[in-house]
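Hey, can you fold this one?
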Amino acid sequence: MRNRWDEVLGHVAMVFCAMDGWRRLGFASFQHYCKERLGMSVRAVQQRAALERKLYELPPLRQAMQERRLSYEKARLIARYADEESVESWIERAEQMTCIELRRQLQGNEEAQMSARGEFEAWLPRRVGGLLALAFAAARRDAGRWLSPGECLVRIAKHCIEVWKPALAERNTVQKRVLARDRWLCQVPGCSRAAAQVHHIEYRSHGGTMS
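Sure. Predicted structure:
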């Protein structure tokens, strides 16, 4: 039962969300239910429900999980980026990679595809999506006409640069060059976070360098 916990929870969460179970049980929201009844963040439960939906679309991925060829986290990453044609090849590659290596390769592959077709997709929490919709509405109102999502993003970016340009005009330091070289990613084995400092591997105060 413990070994199948993620799979069972994902299926139950998917059905529970579809029938607004939290409302039937008298909770204020799904987030309230997750916190009070499950002791989990709403995002963690939603991720499991989303994975369960994808597993119906990608049977080889479910089989790989059942055979213990993939961890839950690797399966979640593949489900997010793969389709019916690519899922089996990603499963084979994932077996030879760490989660961090898999995530970066999947993201890099997606970025290359987006660049080739000149458009991109973004996965956003609902509240962030709502905030983005409000920002688009403000950009269109400022322009006095309807703008495509891409035009809205360009207009918002230009405004952001104009406002923050004084703060962005910094010297081209060694620290910035090192971060750019590492694509702003932490280089510590096993860490998937964005790089905050160039001496994260070994502090300079302990004899480390910025290289």
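The CA atoms of residues 23 and 29 lie 7 Å apart. Let me know if you want another pass with a different chain boundary.
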